[in-house]
Amino acid sequence: DFSSLHSKDLLPAKNGEEVTKHFLQELLNILLAYISKSLNRSSKVLDFHHPHQLKEGLEGFSLELQDQPDNLEQLLVDCQDTLKYGVKTAHPCFFNQLSTGLDIIGLAGEWVTSTANTNIFTYEIAPVFILMEDIIFKKMHSIIGWSEKEGDGIFCPGGTMSNLYSVLLARYHFFPRVKTAGMLALPPLALLTSTHSHFSIKKSAAVLGIGSESVFLVKCDESIALILMKYNLVLYPQGLVPFYVNATAGTTVYGAIDPLNDIADICERFGLWMHVDAAWGGGLLLSKRHRMKLQGIDRASSITWNPHKMMGVPLQCSVILVQKKGLLQECNQLCAEYLFQPDKHYDVSYDTGDKSIQCGRHVDIFKLWLMWKAKGSEGFESQVNHCLENAEYLYYKLKSRKDFQLVFQSQPEHSNVCFWYLPTSVRNMPPGPERDRELHMVAPKIKAKMMEEGMTMIGYQPLGDKVNFFRCVFSNPATQKEDVDFLLDEITRLGRE
Ligand code: ABU
Question: What is residue 58's predicted lDDT score, i.e. its pLDDT?
């Protein structure tokens, strides 16, 4: 009975060990029940409530904070309710996001990390984690194909931040005076990226004072080489200096992979920084069957890779990898004397925190390191292959159905499969704006019903000239072909007129 106990009775309270043990055991029971439920196909993915309903409080679950402390019993109920009204992203029928699933070793890693509760800026207070980072970076560099003399990196809070680092580093590489003199040290700059690249490239330009209008989009269906030549002719006469090209290995919606070698040729020819946003596609490097899709990635100056996507590491776990050793440190270091004293009694090159634009940093390495230990590279490889096999299965299913239409006829390069559901009324309409208008409304209507019923979840969006379509992505190792069949059955059932 925890109803007469409060947080003050837990450790470090005197004799608080027993209460702490029982409290954590009870919490573990709640988490175990949640995990089992998440993996049970007959349970719901979500129990949807509108924001006002959650705010008003449901069945005694109140988000409001009081002056008086709640007892431990209430805190356990709060933990249970928080999970109850959330979304079970580990459910085999959760297809909504690029990060899905729940790896138990990764979860254990997160618990250990939180228990250690340290800050990964100095070797002094995070010795083991810092060395693990070093080991993992070497592993990733060698998978990419960089030599032992090359390569550096830092963990960041997500792919957007990793991409921001890439622009920051590229700018510093060409214009090192910017660090001290600021924008006055710069000519007007231009960045190039493909139309379907992640919004974070524009956001980075905005945040770094370059301006989002200085990001020039290259159409994906035109030869990258030609376009870059064109921009070279267009940008320079305008007084703009292109310095950075982002190639995407696994676009967010289509999972498309830019031709990395062609882009690398152009970057080498014009002396441009080549960044590869492989936040989503990086995981393919672990598969002998799929890694050739990223041929040329070793020629990149920097790479974003999110182990929290295709590799299934619990959120968050994202890196920026940099080919040129020492650049991260040079670009970002400010030598705060209270942290990075040069006269410490150990090798201070292991105080890696000054490479970062943050001060305090969460330890994201341990769960990844532990998972790598548990699976080996081969385990990650079969996980990746399994996800792409599911995508292939869905692709062929859709191809054979009259009530679905693929957005692209060709087989997806990654595990994204994009498609429309065609209700009978739409199927009987001739192609044209009227049909497009009707079709545009189909996916949102189905998604709304899907969320109300809660048995599966998939995302949709319009893109360019394409009206709303579904995007199914596979990154959850728990998902099987029967779940793919269920998804199509659900869409058909919910979309019936
Ligand atoms: N950073 C991209 C994540 C997008 C998605 O999960 O759909």
Answer: 85
Q: Please report the atom of ligand 1 found closest to the CA of residue 160.
A: 1
Give the Å distances, CA to CA, from 479 to 35, 92, 267, 493: 15, 4, 40, 21
Q: What angle do CA 33, 36, 41 make, to 5 degrees?
A: 135
Q: Is the CB of 87 under 6 A from ligand 1?
A: no
Topology at the third CATH level for domain 119-362: Aspartate Aminotransferase; domain 2 (3.40.640)
Could you report how far apart the first and last alpha carbons of the chain are, in Å? 52
- Which residue ranges make up each domain of the chain? 7-88, 119-362, 374-495
Q: Hey, whose CA ends up nearest to atom 2 of ligand 1?
A: 252
d(CA 419, CA 105): 34
Pairing of strands 416-421, 457-463: unpaired
pLDDT by residue (tens digit) across 254-304?
999 999 998 999 899 889 999 999 999 999 999 999 999 999 999 999 999
Does an H or E element contain 274, and which?
Answer: strand 273-278
- Which pLDDT band holds residue 221 (cuts at 50, 70, 90)? low
Q: What is the third-level CATH fold of 374-495?
A: Aspartate Aminotransferase, domain 1 (3.90.1150)
Task: Answer yes or no: are the C-beta atoms of 400 and 488 closer than 8 Å.
Answer: no
Q: Give strand pairing partners of 363.
A: none
pLDDT range class, residue 481, cuts 50, 70, 90: very high
- 492: helix, coil or strand? helix
Span 102-138, pLDDT tens digits: 999 999 999 999 999 999 999 999 999 999 999 999 9
SS (H, E, C) 459-490: EEEEECCEEEEEEEECCCCCCCHHHHHHHHHH
318 lines ligand 1 (CB under 6 A): no
ipTM metric: 0.92
Distance of CA 258 from the midpoint of ligand 1 (Å)? 18
Q: How confident is the model at residue 185 (pLDDT cuts 50, 70, 90)?
A: very high
| Ligand 1 pocket test, candidate residues 89, 95, 96, 98, most atoms within 8 A of CB | 98
Residue with tokens 């029982």: 22
| CB 281 less than 6 A from any atom of ligand 1 | no
Sign of CA dihedral 143, 147, 148, 154: negative
User: Of how many residues is the chain composed?
Assistant: 497
- Strand-pairing partners, residue 153, are 321
**How many CB atoms are located within 10 Å of the residue 24 CB?**
12
